[in-house]
Task: structure prediction
Amino acid sequence: MVVIKTSKMCKNLKQVVLNCLHLSHLRPEELKVIVSTRTRVMDMLWFCLAALRSAWVFYPQTGYIHPDEFFQGPEIVIGDILDLHTLRTWEFDHVNPIRSIVFPYLLYGLPLTTLKVICDAFGWTVDSYHLLVLPRFVALLSSLMCDFLISKICVLCNMKRSFCVTMFASSYVTLTFMTRAFSNSTEVVIFTLLLFVVLKNTQKLSMDIQQNTSSLHLPQENYVDCVFVGMIVVAGTFNRPTFVAFAIVPCTYWLLHKFERRVFLLFSAVCCSAGMLLLMAAFSLTDSIYYGTLSMDMLSKLTNTHDFPTSLQSVIGNLTWTPFNFVKYNMNKDNVALHGLHPRFLHFVVNFPLLFGVAAPVSILLSLQVILQIKCLSKELKLKLLFVLCLLVPMLLLSIFPHQEARFLIPLIIPVVFLTHQFVIGNNCYKLPLASWIIWNLLGATLFGSLHQGGVTQSLSYLSHTIHRMETKGNCSHHVIFFHTYMPPRHLLVVPKKKKMHSNEVSVYDLSGSSLEKLQALIEHIKTAEDSKTKNVEHKNGFNICIACPSSFEAEIVEMVKLNSVYSKTIVKFYPHLSIEDLPDWNTILYSSKRLWNEVDKTSFEKLFSVYSVISDAFSLHLHCLRFSV
Result:
């Protein structure tokens, strides 16, 4: 009775989904023509989306998604290789680091070194554009590797390649997050690679068992794949320790296939462990040397046979294990509270739909359908169950932790694509989910690709050129204050370390969400410090204070400037810029726009331009450049 009821529930749920999304009214020959046409259209669409993704890297997106896109990789490596003033965040502290340096150097080390060599050879100058675009170009190549791996998985699983890669390419997550230097973006690539290797290995193993039932030995290719699986898991863990949540399901699926022959499980476990230990040693040694807990002298003592046991114990005791430090740090509730505490349901209710739009509820519905059919799984449903578990298990595990950000879930784009591509953009799609998918991703790409904190990188590029242009005018200090914005990445100012970053050359202050009183106190402190330094410096040409803030603080900053004796002032505006924490006054925008539109002595075009000026001014970052004489 239970089996019959379960079967009926499955059929009912399936019928509901098909009624909503399926093109069931077409004859088979008509459907075949449509499928063929759609496949060609999807291939062309993927090419256009890949071109857009590339173009949006070289004509850089102005949007600034999160400080980690700069401070968990490029900021550190650029400071080391190009010898520029940067901000080394607490995560890369030499005393107790929680981030491995291996992946930042693997991804950005060679391109930045190449850039430095070329510029030195031809006498070129590195500017902020190069430093902004180069890490994003590396991220672009990584995202295109995901497209390639998705197409390979589609071949293995007999899925529609063109629909899967097009859905992946059309997501705003791919267009924005995947073209930024996030460790989460690298996590997507590693997760996709793990899925591909696991599916390829299990499929090959099943074929070998069918062809040679008497053999007790794994083929040589399977040994290599087993080592590779272990290395991928370790690499993903050192990149982001949360990768374990994403790796659990593919690795469990892989091990369960080995149970068909227990001897295969033993051989696989040995090979996998060898790969894990090998890469763990390499990553840990690299981190230990970089962070200074191990020196080359300590390693050279390993060659001395007389001191070998003691020297080996010394090396092992001084190894830096960044994943362990990461877990230890996040086990402390006080540490997690510094970054924000969120309700446990935030990933399911807010972050998951925010990232994937209509594909989020569709994937949950399809997951329920597969789970209800778990007692009568075919080969196709087993693969679907794998993707369902790859979706639900990581989300459940990550929901245990009280700090939850949307970007933590971006690797879920892979199972979402495999589960929902047919119902969102494929043969079984309906107009409503397709239109919803298009609109949602247009909005997401606009918000995160252009609007969100969009003036920060633009203002840094402007300041970099301005500061270098003023170098010829004598001894002048520059003080740059960012007020109610995201952390400014210092490397985009392109200030060499040979210049004093915090004395008489360039100083950067991040006031984030501080009060206006603190801003005024900082200005007074800078003025006092500059007055005292003027007595000891000859030919001092004054100093500059630049205040970058959202338009919502325009009136307060103007009043504050009036209280200070400024020699000259300039206001530069960078559009677009949207600070969700400090939105402009909508009433003021509507009132000004209505007043300008009702002016009778202007043409419609002039009125439209005036209204546009009001809106663009409201959604801009205002840079107040104040010149003080001595």
